Amino acid sequence: MKTEILVIDDNADIRFLICNILEENGYILRSAANYEQAVKEVDSKLPNLAIIDIKLDKGPKDGIDLLKLLMSKDKSLPVIMISGHANVQVAVEAIRIGAYEFVEKPFSSEKLLNYVKRALEISSVKKEKEKVENKLFHSFDLIGENIEILKIKKTIEKLSTTESRILISGQTGTGKELVARKIHKKSSRSEKPFVVFNTALLKEKNYEKQLFGEEYPNGNIDYGVLERANNGTLLLDEVSEIPFDIQSNILRTLIDQKFKRINGIKDVYVNIRIISSSSKNLKTLIQENKFREDLFHRLNVVPIHLPPLQSRTEDIPLLIRYFKKKISEINGVKEAEIDENNDLLYSYDWPGNIRELRNLIERITILSIHEDKKDTKKLLTDILKESPTSLNSSDILSNSMAYPLKEAREKFETNYLVNQLKKNNGNISKTADFIGMERSALHRKLKSLGIKGLN
């Protein structure tokens, strides 16, 4: 794909000269004579590099204002500032705002080409670095062989060819953002922005500005998430937290595909795929008049529900192996030795779900580096016992003291057998072999204790 360069200079001869030099070297050129023309070019499509003259006639705005505009849209965009009336103060200000280089007129063709080549190379390196960092920290895979997880994987594949809006529900830490990212990466918008709007972290007065952006009397613009996500995907994370009054504005934007910035006059048109997530039951919030029913139906075109980790404990060994390897790669350390058969892993409630398990593996990996923390089995047990939601044999025995012998024994056996079944993915034969019972005897015991299938 060829590189597009936008040249902004009020002098027609200089514009022609710069464009001619760059075109001869294989670049695609666009040009503008003033601030207003440049804004139209930028709004239609961002270039790969911009060359801007400091002084722009026929308007109150100069090249510095245009530089600020470009940096607000994409801080990684390389910009070369040029001027025939340069001074140190202006040059320093331009570099501080984000310009790659400041060049004085007149300049040679060779000098211009060198600056352009170096600016594009550095920009490419920065983008590659961002991709690597994004891969390390945001590209965890959807791991699991649980029947619900397999269904979700198939749904993600099917959604890759559609533009449907999606509502992802599930407890905190189940991987809602991960699923949203997977959907985006498999879609036709994969090369466009993926923007996360975390609605739970904002004060109510900031919602409109963050969503729609704001225009100021001096002509500056703060762009909201709707514009930053244009042509890409916008994740409304924890959509239930959006104030009720703002929900109607979002609904109108979804219907019209346009909006006005705060203090703005002109409509801003957008083409965005909306994915929403919620850890709360939106239908309950609708009944409580805390969420708009019409907005819910607009967002809930394709629902995806992520199960809690407690209901898919057969995936725990797979997840442990995956996170051990991933965390080892990210931190550049040896993989921790973790006992996948530790009973506490299967009896623990996992209130933080997959995120909590990942944090647990990372904690053990880091702590096990130190000489006094080599016993990872004890470390794992100690960490899980810190939580009141964990369940271990001593808890069971102490709690059973309040019951008659027969009832206490049944409670202990029930908990023990449920945990063993979870560890063996519900496989009766494997569980019977491990605990030393005949398969038929185990079936009778499970029936007598009222233990049904774990799926």
Keywords for this entry:
five-stranded parallel β-sheet; about 450 residues; Rossmann fold; alpha/beta; elongated; Helicase, Ruva Protein, domain 3
Overall helicity: 40-55%
Q: Which sheet architecture does the biggest sheet show?
A: 5 strands, parallel
Strand order of the largest sheet: 2-1-3-4-5
Which geometry do the CA atoms define?
Answer: elongated
Mean pLDDT, all residues: 83
The N- and C-terminal alpha carbons lie at a distance of: 50 Å
What are the segments in which pLDDT stays under 50 over at least 5 consecutive residues? 388-402
Beta-strand residue fraction: 5-15%
State the domain count. 4
CATH class identity of the largest domain: Alpha Beta
Quick synopsis:
By secondary structure, the chain is α/β, with parallel strands linked by helices.
General description of the model:
The chain is α/β, with parallel strands linked by helices and 455 residues long. It has four domains: 4-135, 3-Layer(aba) Sandwich (Rossmann fold); 143-307, 3-Layer(aba) Sandwich (Rossmann fold); 311-385, Helicase, Ruva Protein, domain 3; 393-449, Homeodomain-like (Arc Repressor Mutant, subunit A), CATH 1.10.10.60. Helices cover 49% and strands 13% of the residues. The chain is built from 20 helices and 14 strands. The chain has a five-stranded parallel beta sheet, sandwiched between helices. Strands 7-10-13-6-14 form a five-stranded parallel beta sheet. Strands 8-9 form a two-stranded antiparallel sheet. Strand 3 (49-53), helix 3 (63-73) and strand 4 form a beta-alpha-beta unit. Helix 2 runs parallel beside helix 3 (63-73). The longest helix is centred in the N-terminal third of the chain and has 30 residues, at 109-138. It is elongated and about 95 Å long.
